[in-house]
Every structure is written in C-alpha cells, then in structure tokens.
Specification:
It is built from ten helices and no strands. It is mainly alpha-helical and 262 residues long.
Length: 262
C-alpha cells in the first residue's frame, strides 16, 4: 500500500510547488517569472526558492508554503484513492491546482486574475462536460454569470448609498465593494464546473460559509477588544468560500448527498 502511494505523494508535492510558485509571481508580473522576496524584493535563486530557504537578506519564507504543500499531499492521496468517477485522478488534481491558485491569490491579494480566469474557463468547460454533459455545463455557467451579475450590481448600489450616508454625516467614504468583477467571472467558471442545477447549491453554500466565518471573525474582534465601528465593513474576499463549496461538491460525494437528498 505504501509503495502505491509514492506516485500521488510525489505528484501532490509537485502540485503544491506549482500553486506556491504561481501565487508568488502572478499577482506581480502576470507571467512566469523569477520569484522574489515579498519583504525586500530580492530575487531568489531557483534552488533556494524550491527548497524553501530564506532570501539572501535572511527573510523567512511564508508559513503558507508549508500549509499548501501539506494540504496538496493530503488531497493528492485522497483523489488517488477516491478519484471522481468521471474525472479521474489527473483531471481532478488539475482542478485542485486551479482552485488552489485562485484561493491563495484571492486571500493574499484580493485579486482574481485574468490569466487564471482564462485557464479556468477552458478547464471548467472540460470538467463540466465530462461530469454533466454540454447543456447542463453551459446552463450552469450562464446561471452563475447572471446570479453574480445581479449580486454585483446590488453591491454597487449598496456601496453608493452607504457612501452618500457617510458623506452626509461628515465621514470619509470608501469605494470598497463586497463583490468585484473577478467574482462574477469566478462564479461563471464554477457554474461550468458544477453545472445546472448544482451551481445553485455551490453559490448558496459559499455565501453561508462566508457569512459564518465573517461572524466568527467579528465575534473574535469583540472578545479580544479589537472591534471598531468599521469592523462590519471589513472586506473579506468571497472567492475562497465559493471555491471551498465547489471543491466539497465535486470531491466529496457524501457531502453532495447531504445537501441534495436523493
């Protein structure tokens, strides 16, 4: 059994390296490039970078590197032993890499990049086609697009109303929006991946996840005494919650059975 796990362990470690590398360079260069230290902008030697060594100025690497590596090892082994029936191990792992890249970049930079979106659209179409067929895939993408467009414009309207009220009482207004254009694109891609009608469940569960963890964060701020009046307006990217929701639906059939009985 241990011998059969050598392959998913090696591939999983490589997948983690891919996610970490792209999450380190794409937000800054939008292309494959030499990674640099986020603290001093010193270029890493490739050997030092992939061995997780400190930069030349002694700055330690992010804990995120190890978290991603360990998590991808576990996911790789899981998909190897329980591959999605219609996707298989390699396509399932490729989908996981895409999820991971978007997740990390959105958490750290609050960005959903166009290069990842273009790749995600092609991958989503393939995954959806393999899983559900062409028509449910396209309907899922259209549903994700229309729903998120509606939520996006509602968010824009809410931001403008809030800004006017803050200006009316003499407070400085910001233009921070809960949802951005990148979220609209992401939900379109997740709609392709989940198909129709599962995109509804993916969207609702993602929103519930975001609301739950936002509530936990606010309660933590209150308990620790760090809560401020603007804490409720703290911007938390929703992309990671939508990705988590889609990941659970695709890779954990028992979870899917719980939210879609029968």
């Amino acid at each position: 059994m241990a011998i059969t796990l050598i392959m998913p362990i090696l591939i999983g470690w490589l997948a983690g390296l891919v996610i970490n590398y792209l999450a380190d360079v794409l937000p800054f260069t939008r292309r494959f490039s030499q990674p640099t230290c986020p603290q001093c902008d010193t270029e890493f030697a490739w050997k030092d970078y992939f061995l997780f060594r400190s930069c030349q100025n002694g700055h330690q690497r992010k804990i995120r590197l190890w978290l991603v590596q360990i998590l991808l090892l576990a996911i790789s082994i899981y998909i190897w032993t329980r591959p999605p029936s219609r996707l298989g191990y390699l396509v399932g792992l490729l989908l996981t890499i895409y999820f991971g890249i978007v997740f990390v970049i959105d958490v750290e930079h609050r960005l959903i990049l166009h290069p990842t979106s273009v790749f995600g659209a092609f991958l989503g179409l393939i995954v959806g086609w393999l899983n559900w067929g062409l028509l449910p895939t396209l309907l899922g993408g259209l549903c994700g697009l229309l729903i998120m467009l509606a939520l996006y414009f509602f968010g824009v309207l809410f931001t403008r109303i809030r800004a006017k009220r803050l200006l009316a009482i003499g407070q400085e207004a910001d233009d921070e929006e809960a949802l951005g254009a990148g979220d609209v694109i992401l939900l379109t891609i997740l709609g392709l991946i989940l198909g129709w009608p599962l995109i509804w469940f993916g969207l609702v569960f993602g929103i519930l996840l975001g609301g739950f963890f936002s509530l936990v964060l606010i309660l933590g701020l209150v308990i620790s005494g760090k809560y401020e009046k603007n804490a409720l307006m703290l911007f938390i990217p929703y992309g990671p919650y939508f990705i988590t929701s889609a990941f659970l639906i695709i890779f954990f059939p028992k979870f899917l059975a719980m939210i879609v009985p029968g």
